[in-house]
Amino acid sequence: MAGLVSVVQPIFTSPSVRNNAAKQNRSQVLLAHKVAKPTLAARFALRGEGVRTPKAIKGRGRSFGVVAALAEAENPATLAAPKLSMPGLSRSQITHVMKFGGSSVRDAERMVEVAAIICAFPENAPAIVLSAMGKTTNNLLAAGEQALKTPAKDVKNLAPLKTIRQLHLDTIATLGVEDSVRHEIEELVEELGQLLSAISIMQELTPRMRANLVSYGERMSTRIFASFLRTQGVEARQFDAVDIGFACTDDNYENGEILPETYPVLKKSLTRAEGEKPFIPVITGFLAKGVKTGAVCTLGRGGSDLTATVIGAALKISEVQVWKDVDGVLSADPRRISNAIPVPFLTYEEATELAYFGAQVLHPHAMRPAMDSNGTLNVRVKNSYNILADGTLITKTRDVNENFALTSIVMKEDITLLDIVSTRMLGQYGFLATVFGVLNDHKLSVDMMATSEVSVSVTLDPVKFWARDLEEEELAALSNDLSKYATLVVKKGYTILSMIGKVQGSSQSLHRAFYALDKNKIDVVMVSKGASKVNVSLVVEGSDGENALKALHEEFFSGEPFCGYIANTPCPDNSADLAKK
């Protein structure tokens, strides 16, 4: 792309105001300089009377455009490119954390949009956490794998590396970042090529090397974005998380655990000195420093959410905003349920269960700092493509609507079910400890468990632990170790449906779930309820998974009164017979 926008003030006007302003005063149209293609900048953002804030025009439209329009003035050269307004000038310290994911900063145009979102809330003094641009993390991992099979002299021609290079160099050219940052990005791209050459030569891609490899995505995106803000008059400083206090365990370089010493150091690093000029910190998500080795560690895929909540907890602020590409947390996966609805409120526990059982909105560990805050830190999930959407507010507690006690239904596919049977279990203590000791030896964690007098059934997700080509071998080894104590029956291809919400004392929720599944002739293989106050999980055959999800969603989120075995409302004719069973 030859050039996108200079920049825009985040201005919001009605269509009539836009049209009148365009006719009456062409100089009020924000001109994008170096615009090569009119289609690239087809939206308007205007100064002047009739300006509305996001709050004032709530509900007026699904999205807003902040890319400046190609002005249709007689003499465009006379129009000055405007600058963004620095938010939070009245604040002495950071008040909010705003995290933007990869899709939100996937290219130059999206970075312009994100800059306008940040500056659209002048009363907030934000710290910004960014993920890598678009699919950069995936491309970095692919480049590492391909480097193992490529001669060192040919590494520079790897397709994923070319894609990464082109994306970042195009972005800095389009946004017109500072020369010093342009040189820094070029050096990082060159360094990345050298690392891939080393992988090729050594024929080794260890977890430590892989963590270092993927760190380049966040290191480049944050430098580009901070520089872009500065060119638009917004004081911003880029920080690598490893340099401002993020410390983690380094026994697992790709899924490090944040250590307590992170918090005081982070607070000191991001607290402004008295009288210091305000600035916006732009911080790499996903990364930390190993406490023993000093090497780069990552916090697991999606770990930028955790970065944001750790910063929020360290600074003792009231809200972390996680900006995604959906309207908050939804009642189900919209790719499978077309009428999935946004969930306005969640509790910490509900959000954690949703993340663990497969919802892609938040990192499973992101709620931990909020939980530790004793309710003082809230997390709000917003849509960077639709800032007018209310999103989802995650708090310590929430009110329960009797008609919508559930908040969401999550489906987790391709699950393996292990039936462990032994008559030795009857009346004996220590059997479960023995079974879980074997699972621990194989580094396996269990999703669900059900027990009887002589058996225990557990589910696990093989993809978490093994490559697909190693699954049979690993299961055979597990079966061999368990054979000393019990008989193992392995069943594959199941689906877990987790109903998240206020399910404590949930007889009616279970009643409705079984009614909906029975009505659709779907059998339940296993049920897990009790340990969690916010989750009831059902296992069904994989072939029934999607139909089961649709049936449950219709039952709990259609807004229709429940008609079932003990319903107080009349049943439709087609279910009357079933209700009498």
Report on this model:
The protein has 581 residues and is an alpha/beta fold. Helices cover 33% and strands 17% of the residues. It contains 15 helices and 17 strands. The chain has helices at 15-24, 108-119, 136-147, 159-175, 179-202, 207-231, 262-270, 304-315, 348-356, 367-372, 431-441, 471-482, 507-519, 545-557, 573-579; strands at 96-100, 126-130, 236-239, 247-248, 280-284, 287-290, 296-298, 319-324, 345-347, 378-383, 392-395, 406-421, 448-451, 455-460, 487-501, 526-528, 535-541. An eight-stranded mixed beta sheet has the order 3-5-2-1-8-10-11-9, sandwiched between helices. It has a six-stranded antiparallel beta sheet with strand order 13-14-12-15-17-16. β1, α2 (108-119) and β2 form a beta-alpha-beta unit. α3 packs antiparallel against α4 and α5 (179-202) packs antiparallel against α6 (207-231). The longest helix has 25 residues, at 207-231. The termini are far apart. The model is unreliable at 1-82, 563-571 and 574-581 (pLDDT under 50).
